[in-house]
């Protein structure tokens, strides 16, 4: 995790060229920000007009953060359709412009340029296929696809007919997929035969088959052909997309949706329990995704925008599909990984498609930095104008490498802090308005009111510099509305620790210039290669194994992943620790959750540090994993303090 740098850290002011070119300069930011918090109704009423409404809204917001009555509504009486906003309304002026550039995993396979007119036809056909399969407004559709254009068609087809999509990252296991299909009671799951990635393929259809064994028999499966490899087939349940698309009608009428009708559900990890279905709705989400895409990335007509995320994460939803397409942009969809066939791949794709804005995660930057700058320097990156980072705190070394080697000191870096829950950027420097600092998320976006609270008293800290927990004082249009099927959990998770505020789960520091630095999660959520994970999920996977009696999982600093997964495992009495068992547990967690949850370290723990009431003291386990024994703090309340010495003596190498 990044240590927040001091305020005397390096400061990079915006260049005069960027300031002249950008949508927003410093004076405009100040004026707009002041207006956005002084009169949110007026501000968001005006900016709500950036999308097309079928029936214009008359109410801008209806928000309460008060316990017992958590309610978030934006543009509540307006009606619109998200797909029509992302496609149809551009047809008059951009029918032949490329909407999506698809860059396949294998660089020898041709890239595909999909125009807005083509996108329209393909999305309509997919919409008609889904309707043939019985999907109607309000029904849920799970999407479990590789990073292929059909993933975007599927999202937009759902939006067109008013179905609610829930994307499951293709790296998740059959069990995780089943839990999500059942969690939202999906009618249809859309998958592909196989997913190529980094020169290997993963068997999505057979994963889906395995998942569907645990789901209602009525769930249907739509299968997209990607590699053409053989898969099993169940007549009646499985539907062949490539066959149906030949027959499907080219037009589907966009359904009139209320601004507050759900657009998608996206499962994300919390500090306790199973992943929760974050619900985003239509109007406010789209306004916010489009506006942040345009302003944070300084997007202009003719630019080629590339966000390297997967559509399985919120970053892909907001900044590969919805934000860019709502703005009539050209957006790149990349199926591969940064290091295949070699560590030049990202930069070759930038050169090939003349990418102007490039948005990636610190973990990718660190991995590529380790390969040396030769891989970057052999590519022509002169088209790049702006760089972005997201997903975890970026360490100053990686920031500096990104700035110097990739950006040649000419591209501002927007370090965007946000979450699945927030729909779009909340803290970020704006490229023409703000200086940047290596590792700082800097400033609130319009309408965003960050506050730093004292974690103990819950009081707002007004002094600066300061450090505490990061909360938001008021709503913004892209905010999640509820947890699918569990509004109480929504209130409990985000609005009950600090009453009257939305609690982000992150710690932060405000420096003497008033700029924000994210210091990382303050709850039991860890961030592994930009993937968010609840330590509780890994623990429950571990204890589900017959050999395991008890497990405690914490994060520890990892040079490339940001955080690694450190597991303390107590075995059943009849079990002997062995290298073999360690391997077996690793494989077990990978199949229970997915490869992203694979434990980095497993330490055998004959006992875990517990209070007399039996609560595991994770603070101590974190310190041992971090190799920071000096700061163990008070261990006198432990039932058996000698456990700690034992754990320290046998600490695993990290
Ligand atoms: C958590 C949210 C939203 C996009 C991808 C992750 C961490 C996100 C930053 C950043 C420091 C960051 C936070 C946050 N995070 N962006 N720029 N600097 N930390 O979405 O999976 O919902 O995770 O990622 O800890 O709470 P997510």
Automatic annotation (TrEMBL):
GO terms for biological process: acetyl-CoA biosynthetic process from acetate. Its EC number is 6.2.1.1. ATP binds at residues 391-393, 415-420, 506, 521, 532. One of its GO terms (cellular component) is cytosol. Keywords: Acetylation, ATP-binding, Ligase, Magnesium, Metal-binding, Nucleotide-binding. CoA binds at residues 197-200, 315, 529, 590. Residues 29-86 form the Acetyl-coenzyme A synthetase N-terminal domain. PROSITE patterns: AMP_BINDING. Mg(2+) binds at residues 543, 545, 548. Belongs to the ATP-dependent AMP-binding enzyme family. This is Acetyl-coenzyme A synthetase. The lineage of its organism: Bacteria, Pseudomonadati, Pseudomonadota, Alphaproteobacteria, Rhodobacterales. The gene is acs.
